Amino acid sequence: MEKMRVALLVVFSAAVLWPDRALALKCYSCTPQPCNNQCMDPMNCSEEDRYCMTVVELLEIGPSSVKQISKMCMPNCSEIIQHPVFTSCCQRDFCNLNGDAAARFCNSRMLLGILATSVSALLWTGL
What we know:
This protein has 127 residues and is of the alpha+beta class. It has helices spanning 2-17, 19-23, 100-125; strands spanning 26-33, 41-44, 51-61, 64-74, 81-82, 85-90.
């Protein structure tokens, strides 16, 4: 019973002495990457950060576009859905795993790839 009291006292003291360590938000973070699966570096946010943010930018290069995904901790966050920048915000640990903005574009790229492969296969077989 005495060991339990000592353990609780240590945990309580740590929470009082270092509250920012116990309550700091944790987010995935990365510099601009082409897809979500390359954007998964865990990060301890600062005490003032309250949001995990995902930013997707579409860069027009000639007739095609290139997507770049960034993730970060932010003290404030506004969701933007206005071409060429899309952002999503959340407030739980590692909640930006598949940020809405990032998932929307990675999934659409995958769907287009599957569709193009299927059409190509149909044309090749003569159906």
